[in-house]
Specification:
The complex is a heterodimer. Chain A is mostly helical. In chain A, 53% of the residues lie in helices and 7% in strands. Chain A contains 3 helices and 1 strand, in the order H-H-H-E. The chains are: A mainly alpha, B alpha+beta.
């Protein structure tokens, strides 16, 4: 019989395992296995992808600039109106 | 979910992206500016766009006078995307400016579900050459000088512990901006000064600023969004430690940061924003990184986190409907994620273009000006009083 644990139970099991790992990991870190600053920087850089499809459109963010360019070039505006966080963001 | 779905299903299509770049002027606008326009003539241009919107979010093609020609909230099929572009170009050829009244056409789904048109006001708005407020674009962030601004990148890991190759969807590849306010940096600096060479607890404001954007998926599933995103926070354990380490030079101090976060959220069921969304989201991460401080300010920050993430959004009915993603941009696509994840964050002080010194003028300055105005009024010094009152008005409007 296959038992499927609900998401909360699976998460609880993982928390317990993670806590055990964190304790042993913390001991290992104190023992000198901590990443160096350069290693952390390199890991952060490795995560970034520049060639993602949604970066292809060259979005302006200023309506005035867009309208002035539209008048200058004779092209219509493509407006993408979206709810985001109060600060400029890639996430939407 | 609209914006994320629009980005994935519409603007990531190669042929759409190429045509939008070549045949249109693409402008991404925050709904907040459209729905609450700034003051002045520029605000009237935003209001003109808002006047015909069928929903707070959408895709709109407008002419060179800022008149909305056609709106679409979704599309019947992927094949309709290039046809929508063709239709917009056709309307622009017929109505390129304000000389002929524009009846804005609106589609819930293009082209199959058309809504009522919105008639033109027949008012022509002048396009100003610059912004008000010292030529500052209202779309720019308004930050306090010294605010730390950075990027957070999140990616699920495969069985080998490597980031997956897919990057189209926000649950496959997430890139977002995060900020660490000046006050949070001051608190970290103060804790460091007290601790000296010892390990110390990172103040909650600073730790929370790191954790807040470390989640996959769209804004709607932010585990820490709470009522702001129609959700409720179910769990928020955020604990960071810091310690001064080697690498400090002169008055620059380097600290090593380690931490653990366990956050989860779900929809709020108290009647607000209950649009049928169903989701649950849990993110458990172990953090390690470094920050460099000079005085009360952090000059650079870089940190990685790894752990587990579970995210469910929507329900299986969406998948069973058989409709393409473009047909339900508002609801998006279902997500059922249970994965190991890795995050990377890097931040530096904000660019001066994003600094708004007027908005962030110390409150005491306003108080002093008001006090001065009362004195000047009592003395009958009208000319100087007028100048002080103009400055007070400027500061009050900026707040």
């Amino acid at each position: 019989m296959k038992i499927t644990l609900p998401i909360a139970c699976r998460a609880l099991v993982r928390i317990i395992l993670m806590a055990l790992c964190l304790v042993s990991g913390t001991r290992a870190a104190r023992a000198g296995d901590a990443r160096t600053a350069d290693q952390v920087r390199a890991e952060v850089e490795r995560l970034r992808k520049t060639d993602v499809a949604w970066r292809e459109v060259q979005w302006r963010t200023c309506l005035l600039d867009g309208l002035q360019e539209s008048q200058r070039t004779g092209k219509p505006l493509m407006l993408w109106i979206f709810i985001d966080r109060p600060i400029d963001d890639e996430r939407c | 979910m609209f914006a994320g779905a629009a980005r994935e299903a519409v603007f990531s299509q190669d042929v759409v992206a190429r045509r939008v770049n070549d045949q249109f002027i693409p402008v991404a606008l925050k709904a907040g500016l459209i729905n609450n326009p700034p003051r002045g003539i520029e605000g009237e241009l935003y209001a003109e766009i808002a006047r015909s919107k069928p929903a707070p979010q959408g895709i709109c093609i407008a002419n060179s006078a800022g008149k909305a020609l056609v709106w679409a909230l979704s599309f019947d099929a992927e094949q309709e995307l290039p046809k929508f572009l063709d239709y917009g170009l056709q309307r622009y050829a017929e109505l390129p400016d304000a000389r002929t009244p524009v009846a804005t056409e609106r589609f819930m789904k293009f082209p199959g579900h058309r809504l009522s048109d919105v008639a033109d006001t027949q008012r022509t708005l002048a396009i100003p050459q610059g912004h008000a407020d010292d030529d500052r674009c209202p779309a720019l962030p308004r930050l306090e000088a010294g605010t730390l601004v950075g990027r957070v990148i999140g990616r699920p890991l495969d069985e080998r512990g490597q980031p997956i190759a897919e990057t189209l969807r926000q649950e496959e590849y997430m890139e977002a901006r995060f900020e660490v306010p000046v006050d949070a940096q001051r608190q970290l600096a103060a804790a460091l000064a007290t601790a000296g060479e010892q390990s110390f607890l990172v103040p909650d404001a600073f730790a929370r600023a790191l954790v807040a954007q470390a989640y996959l998926g769209q804004l709607d599933v932010n585990p820490l969004g709470g009522r702001q995103t129609g959700g409720r926070i179910e769990q928020q354990t955020i604990e960071f430690q810091a310690q001064r380490v080697e690498g400090s030079a002169g008055d620059m101090v380097r600290v090593r940061l380690t931490g653990h976060s366990d956050v989860s959220g779900a929809p709020n069921s108290d009647g607000r924003r209950t649009d049928g969304r169903m989701w649950e989201h849990r993110v458990q991460l172990t953090w390690e990184g470094y920050a460099e401080l000079r005085g009360e300010r952090v000059e650079s920050l870089w940190i990685v986190a790894e752990g587990e993430e579970q995210l469910r959004w929507g329900h299986r009915g969406l998948r069973l409907s058989g409709e393409p993603d473009v047909a339900h941009l508002m609801a998006g696509h279902p997500i059922d994620l249970d994965t190991r994840v890795r995050y990377g964050l890097q931040a530096e002080p904000c660019d001066e273009r994003e600094v708004d010194s007027v908005r962030h003028a110390p409150a005491s300055r306003l108080q002093h000006l008001r006090s001065a105005a009362r004195h000047l009024q009592a003395l009958g010094e009208r000319t100087i009083l007028q100048e002080v009152q103009r400055e007070i008005q400027k500061l009050e409007q900026a707040q």
